[in-house]
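Q: What would this complex look like in 3D?
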Amino acid sequence: MTAEVPRMAFAAGGERVLATARALRWQTSDFHEHLMESLYAEAARLADRAVTRPGRPPRFDLDRTIDRLVTSRVWGFPLMILLFALVFWITITLANIPSAWLSSLLIGTIYPALQQAAQAIGLPWWLSGVLINGMYLAAAWVVSVMLPPMAIFFPLFTLLEDFGYLPRVAFNLDNVFKKSGAHGKQSLSMMMGFGCNAAGVVATRIIDSPRERLIAILTNNFALCNGRWPTQILMATIFIGSLAPAYLAGAVSALAVVGVALLGVLITFALSWGLSRTTLRGEVSTFSLELPPYRPPRVLQTIYTSVIDRTLKVLWRAVVFAVPAGAVIWLSANLTIGGVSLAEYLIRLLNPLGLLIGLNGVILVAYLFAIPANEIVIPTVLMLTVLVSRTSGVGSGAGVLFQLSNAGTLHLLQAGGWTLLTAVNLMLFSLIHNPCSTTLMTIFKETGSRRWMALSAVIPLAMGFAVTFLVAQGWRLVAG
Amino acid sequence: MAEERVVAPADCAACPAHHTGNLRRLGVDMSEWDYVVALAGNPNTGKSTVFNALTGLRQHTGNWPGKTVTRAEGGFAYGGRRFKLVDLPGTYSLLATSADEEVARDFLLFGRPDVTLVVVDASRLERNLNLVLQVLEITDRVVVCLNLVDEARRHGLQVDERRLARDLGVPVVPTVARLRQGLDLLLRTIDDVAGGRTLCAPRRLTGVPAELDQAVRRVTREVEAAYPGLPNARWVALRLLDGDERIIEAVRQGDLADLSRPAGAALRFGAEAAR
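A: Here is my prediction, written as structure tokens for the whole assembly.
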């Protein structure tokens, strides 16, 4: 035992207390157990005195009946997939209408009006370019692409959460987590990650053991976050849904999104399993998971909070990052060296690598822009594609697009050389790449270690490149 | 242990500058508030709903355990006094085996809130009381919010809140926070406890085996001698005997000494002189 030097004078009394306590602790065995026992006994006695059961318990226990179904070994997983697919199907089918309406308003009406106004007051072309073609358009895009699906998806997801379904999902997944050497509570922090990975990383505080907490932190990125759902939904709608007959399109795209989300869960298991057998080896701790009672969600308040808390917050974050990005993109598209714009240089530089992994230079550049926020991937991709492919609709300068219906986006992207493979690999890469800088900062704060922060960026990035590369090679082998 | 119950004299309770220093160190800005109310409870008892109902904030409330792992803060006014409400992470115990439990316990121990509101699920009373009993060991000024009484009724349970209040020695207010039922009485009770108009005489844990009890008494006496004025000497003794690293550290670093040399001593006289 090392000698402890009291730091301050008054600590001397404290040391005496500690010495007594230490001595007595060795004399009394099982102090902790005795203490807990008397605590539990007391609580049981008090509860027993205060609680009476005047009525007989209800004959039919609805909660238990639902629980038996949704956590059943046979029906649990299929029901879960069905329920999530339903949520996405509603989102995808309904989002098209306001999306088209918003884009005709923001891009079809307001945008030309702004340009005319700029001309009328004689703004220099470069200034109106940065302001209107860069910043305004980027913001308009973010709003019209992201607002409708989010405004439908988040309230639906929040209703499921308020109803009490998510802990049941966690219950279903718990066993698999334990088998992969992780803590069962990781299923809860993963659920949180489906909203925001930074929040998911903070939520790992509920896990006691540092080893299991690190596993949960490193794998949280594979829960698709708010910023990535729109990318998934858009790609699934315009590329995968369009393969199916019209009446099935919504269902097919919904299943594609659920498929990607489930793949994320599978990767979480696989990586947890790998980590718990290599660098983070150790015992699995046990815990009890409480299934809260089902509560009828208060629909109006849920819609209110999910619109304010999630939809507008995410949208605002996207706009905040998209506006400066819009300016940078416009500038990089219009500043030329030897007749070639900066953006094109960058895209050409990254294009060979992009094509090798079934993506393209535009997407990789967009992911560079999107390091602060995944939300701006799609707007950046669209802007850069217009710029590179010089599609019709390019107005007074490069980097401008007028139309934004789903069909319009599809045409635009196809003109930019996109295929089904590009869309599939973009969905995969969106799932498997480095977390946004906010999440990385949170990981640093929670772990206090640069090494874990770096690893949680490098591992998924390497996996993303590997997966998309393999898919692209396989695809090309089969498709010729 | 009669000595510990003497601690909350009304004048000290009414003193607004109560432990401001410690609270500031915990990141609580007290410049605009008269009292601090800590909100504790098991996960999924409707703690966040109570928080929102009292503060009017609309923090998202999720129906699942572990939603709040950090501290949320808000405020409300009642009877012309301004209360700062600090929502602590939901925990089953205060033994601090995980980060969220530690946040909750440190705040109760070192922040010394004027009132601690423990939200309790009426339909799961026994398990919830484990936490209440632990909170009562740390602090006297506790109000128990017996929430979800509608759900308990649905399960055929009737909770006698008066008997519970008598047994615990602190006020118990039945509520359905979701539907804002019982909140008026809750506010008045918090105000009364904060202002010292309701004095709490919390139950301390009994039924500790004799040989343990002797050890507990001995360490308690030494803690009291080393830190006169410490309000929860017995609890500290229990934790030390249990080998709680955080409390041992607090003894070593002198954090505990800070608590016993109350921001109180000087300020209390100031408050009395002001009357």
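A: To summarize the key features: Confidence is low (pLDDT under 50) at residues 1-9, 392-403 of chain A. Chain A touches chain B through 74 residues (CB under 8 Å).
Q: Very helpful, thank you.
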